[in-house]
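Problem: given the chain below (155 residues), write out its structure.
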Amino acid sequence: MKDPGEICGPIAHIYRSHLAYMAKELEAYRIGSGQFDFLMVLYHKDGISQESLAKILKVSKATSTRALQSLENEGYVYRQRDENDHRAYKVYLTEKGKEIRDVVLEKLISFVDTLLSDFTPEEKEIFRQLVQKAAFKLFEPGFKHPGCDRTDDLN
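Solution.
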């Protein structure tokens, strides 16, 4: 491919649009941009370590801490010291965090429906498969973002 911007540009635009949309839609719930991603992981892995959350979402420990503190202050999650490692925390959804699940999912579905509204059912399936295939490559052990010196933020 001669111009990687033909792929990276639209992906970045979709990502930024996704964050802006979700921030606007969840503003009334005091859930900020990017914080819903933490909730989405917890909906699948409640009780995961704070460090694992950061790794899964490919964010720094500091970013993870700030996002979780905000969610904790709003009553969506709580952190508890890990019994096996007293330096680490596990993160759990509160009842309020569990109750907001359907709202968050509804907003995500609405965004995806808008994104794919001009696609045929076949195109939607092909797009889903190709996006998953591309993303899967980035989960491979040893993947390191070019220009990033800190592998602990990405792996």
